[in-house]
């Protein structure tokens, strides 16, 4: 199996955990969208936004709540079905970022919420530039667990030992590095926030991660049993404060 086949197989695995993805994954704080408006130099209200790799619509719904005219773009059938169930009223186009089925100069913003690493940037960045109007922006962002926190660091060690395919978001800088060479002016921001959730919610989120989604239920179960035991011992009242580092990069096209 080639690396490209591995890439596609792992990406396709999200369809099997789309309900867990929608229930478990974190949203984004208002401060993210404030920063997006500031860095891109325009408000979200009435902006034409293509939310690519929209998944189940977590970011699409928040962008729409800020007044944006959002079109979600999602290639995965299972994720798209969950999107339609969770995001009634928002339009969805079945496509991926490497080949956007939109006219030139037709969008103010192209956004990738937790999804740009599932593209081939050498194709996705030119496609975003093509569909953006002059002065438009390509925005990418990622929620990343703050692994300086002891319980998260311990979880990384457990998962690394249990799962050969375990990985985090270590390549963010590499992906963002494709923006400036394409002629985009790059602005960045790093935000910190946290959410308070139950241990079971933590486990639901874990199931939605690519390194777990790509496993069979039989392979997944012992990992979940071990994580439930470790998390319950760490948080006996059943509640967890989960800290995030939210990395935002905005590439602005020439006006």
Task: Please characterize this protein's 3D structure.
With about 260 residues, the chain is of the alpha/beta class. It is built from 11 helices and 7 strands. It has one domain (about 5-145, about 170-195, about 245-250): Rossmann fold (3-Layer(aba) Sandwich). Helices cover about 40% and strands about 25% of the residues. The chain has a 7-stranded mixed sheet with strand order 3-2-1-4-5-7-6. Strand 2 (about 70-75), helix 5 (about 75-85) and strand 3 form a beta-alpha-beta unit. The longest helix has 18 residues, at about 215-235. It is globular and about 55 Å long. The mean pLDDT is about 95.
Question: Could you give the topology of this structure?
Answer:
Layout: H1 3-12, H2 18-24, H3 30-40, E1 48-52, H4 58-65, E2 69-73, H5 77-86, E3 92-93, E4 107-113, H6 121-131, E5 132-145, H7 150-162, H8 172-176, E6 185-198, H9 199-207, H10 210-213, H11 217-234, E7 239-252
Helix pairs in contact: 2-9, 9-11
Please tag this protein with its features.
single chain; 255 residues; alpha/beta; Rossmann fold; 24% strand
The chain-level structural class is: alpha/beta
CATH C-level class: Alpha Beta
Cα separation of the termini: 44 Å
CATH topology: Rossmann fold
Number of helices: 11
Please outline the major beta sheet: 7 strands, mixed
Low-confidence blocks of residues: none
- CATH superfamily caption: Vaccinia Virus protein VP39
Query: What's the multimeric state?
Result: single chain
Mean pLDDT: 94
Number of domains: 1
**Content of β-strand:** 15-25%
């Amino acid at each position: 199996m080639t690396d490209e086949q591995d890439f596609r197989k792992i990406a396709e695995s999200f369809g099997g955990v789309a309900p867990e993805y929608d229930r478990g994954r974190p949203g984004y704080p208002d401060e993210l969208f404030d920063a997006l408006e500031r860095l891109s130099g325009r408000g979200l209200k009435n902006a034409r936004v293509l939310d690519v790799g929209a998944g189940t619509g977590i970011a699409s719904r928040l962008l729409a709540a800020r007044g944006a005219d959002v079109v979600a773009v999602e290639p995965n059938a299972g994720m798209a079905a969950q999107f339609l169930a969770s995001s009634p009223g928002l339009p969805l186009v079945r496509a991926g970022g490497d080949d956007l089925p939109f006219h030139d100069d037709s969008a103010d913003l192209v956004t990738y919420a937790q999804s740009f690493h599932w593209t081939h940037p050498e194709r996705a960045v030119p496609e975003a530039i093509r569909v953006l109007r002059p002065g438009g922006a390509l925005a990418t962002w990622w929620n990343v667990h703050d692994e300086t926190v002891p319980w998260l660091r311990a979880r990384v060690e457990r998962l690394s030992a249990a799962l050969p395919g375990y990985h985090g978001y270590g390549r963010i800088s590499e992906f963002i590095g494709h923006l400036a060479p394409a002629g985009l002016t790059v602005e960045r921001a790093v935000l910190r926030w946290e959410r308070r959730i139950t241990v079971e919610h933590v486990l639901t989120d874990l199931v939605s991660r690519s390194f777990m989604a790509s496993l069979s239920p039989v392979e997944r179960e012992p990992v979940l049993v071990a994580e439930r035991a470790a998390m319950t011992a760490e948080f006996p009242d059943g509640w967890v404060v989960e800290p995030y580092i939210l990395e935002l990069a905005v590439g602005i096209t020439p006006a």
